[in-house]
Amino acid sequence: MRSAPSSAPILLSLALGLFGPALVACSGGGDDSASTSDTAAETDATGGTTEASATAVTTGDDGTEGTTAGSGASTTTSASTTTGDPGTTSAATDPTDATTTTTGLSDPLMTFFVSSDTHPTGNLGGLAGADKRCQTLADAVGAGDRTWRAYLSAEKGDGDQPVHARDRIGQGPWHNAALELVAANLDELHALDGDHALFLDENGGMVNGQWADSPTPNEHDILTGSDRDGMLLPGLTCADWTSEDAALLAQVGHSDGLGPMMSDAEQYRPWNSVHESGGCNDTAPKGGAGKIYCFAVD
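^ thats the sequence. predicted structure below, dont judge the formating
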């Protein structure tokens, strides 16, 4: 007589049918396994990318990882960041790689020079003629978009009032043709001594003077009609730069700050006021050539 069949196989089949998928999922089988984090803070170690958002991360058997970010804040400081579908790369700018170049009104331009040309007498056509001379020389070197004035004093200006050279040239700063700072303001300017390497003409050339190996003739006497502070010296302006009279004189300074035999004695140093000229009929005696100082006022 046969015995009744056991119910164990039937119960085992039912259990596998009901719980098998869950057991398989827990064991890590299948092609892909998914893990989800409701909130994740993820930092990209290669570039410092930080995302605070609701994020789902999917990792396959081959080790690739895809990240899908939901709503949230994202701050990127790396050169590139991979987000969304695997293999998608979006470029980002790294603020630390940015280069900032500052260019502005502080950049130096030529705003001062000694005239490269010469003039045989003290008759410069008055202050207006001297100013025009400065403007023309500046135009020739591409600096004519500024307003140029001659550093000259005169006894009678508007309303017959004295004109002081220091009041005609603006407030500074002033740079020479080599873009070197000559002086930042009027006080610094009038505290200077002459210097052949600083007091250049509009072409960047040195004015002939008493300095070592200077070409000849000596031309370092620059017409000013002014004292050391840039104020008028009455009677020393060649009749306000209109006369060729041998009996009249002009005050001059030394552009190189030197005297005979390269002497740097105090009396020879001022760039704007050292001695009287030989006469308004001829600017050459004593070391002149009718040169003037030119300043941009704007």
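Confidence is low (pLDDT under 50) at residues 1-105.
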